Amino acid sequence: MGLTKRLLVILTIGTVSLLAQESAGAEKPEDNTNLWKWANFVLLAIGAGYFIGKHAPGMFQARTAEIQKGIAEAQQQKRDADKRAAEVDAKVNRLGADIEAFRAQAKAEMEREGARIRQETAAQIERIHQQATLEIESAGKTARRELREYAAELALDLASQRIRQRITPAIDAALVAGFVEDLQKQGSKN
Fold first, then answer.
1. CA distances (Å), origin 171, targets 165, 167, 182, 183
2. How big is the chain by its Cα radius of gyration, in Å?
3. What pLDDT tens digit does each residue of the chain (190 aa) get?
4. Distances 27 to 31, 50, 167 between C-alpha atoms, Å
């Protein structure tokens, strides 16, 4: 407590006590009661004023600081909420673009996959075509060879039948004799 306040309190108490002593000497008891009432009121007012003066500023300052702190926290929370709301809005705005980009990417992937499948299918068809061509050529060669063999067999059978029909026992003996004679001539040359 400051020196000025202490002096004020001491001066007030002294003045009240002087007034109380002077009024004690007065003749009228009714005036004395009023004076005591006033002195009592003044002492009470000074005590209340002193108490309020001592404790009220700290209390008001603490309350003001608390209110200001609450205001600052509320402002910070509002800024944070605004920031989060802006981030959410940005995400929502980007969401449409992200979905469109995803669709475009999926479409491009589907087109690439379709082109790859078409290319593989075309390559597979070409391989099958080449294989079928080779198999057809091979089957054709085999069939021609078998046909030649069959034709040769038929020609031999037909020639054999014709020769048998035309060869008589006398011609057969002459052919065998000619064949033996050719063998002897060749044997004598060697």
1. 11, 6, 16, 18
2. 69
3. 565 666 567 667 766 666 665 555 545 555 677 777 777 888 788 877 778 778 778 788 888 899 999 999 999 999 999 999 999 888 888 888 888 889 999 999 999 999 999 999 999 999 999 999 999 999 999 999 999 999 889 889 888 888 888 888 888 788 888 888 888 888 787 6
4. 8, 34, 200
Token pair belonging to 70: 């609450």
DSSP string covering 106-160: HHHHHHHHHHHHHHHHHHHHHHHHHHHHHHHHHHHHHHHHHHHHHHHHHHHHHHH
Same domain, 113 and 161: yes
DSSP sequence for 30-72: HHHHHHHHHHHHHHHHHHHHHHHHHHHHHHHHHHHHHHHHHHH
What pTM value is reported for the model? 0.36
Do 36 and 109 share a domain, yes or no? no
| Residue showing tokens 């068809």 | 125
How many domains does the chain fold into?
A: 2
Domain that holds residue 5: 1-48
Q: Does any domain span residue 64?
A: no
Residue 148 lies in a domain: yes
